[in-house]
Amino acid sequence: xxxxxxxxxxxxxxxxxxxxxxxxxxxxxxxxxxxxxxxxxxxxxxxxxxxxxxxxxxxxxxxxxxxxxxxxxxxxxxxxxxxx
Length: 84
What we know:
Strand order of the largest sheet: 1-2
Strand content: 5-15%
Number of strands: 2
Number of helices: 4
Largest sheet: 2 strands, parallel
């Protein structure tokens, strides 16, 4: 099972696992496929920060990522707070 840490930037996650770009796109983060986006914003953006910026529930995003067979770390299910 592949692992995704919410403490890593989107750039780090996608650079380590290029297939994760398609997962991010499928769960609603379509801007990740725009030219230069991953290289610029992706270097500072984490999944929790992206959820806050878009007004998306982090718990829902974690569930969607897990549905693609990933194990998500750095996340507390209780309050939806991330360990940053």
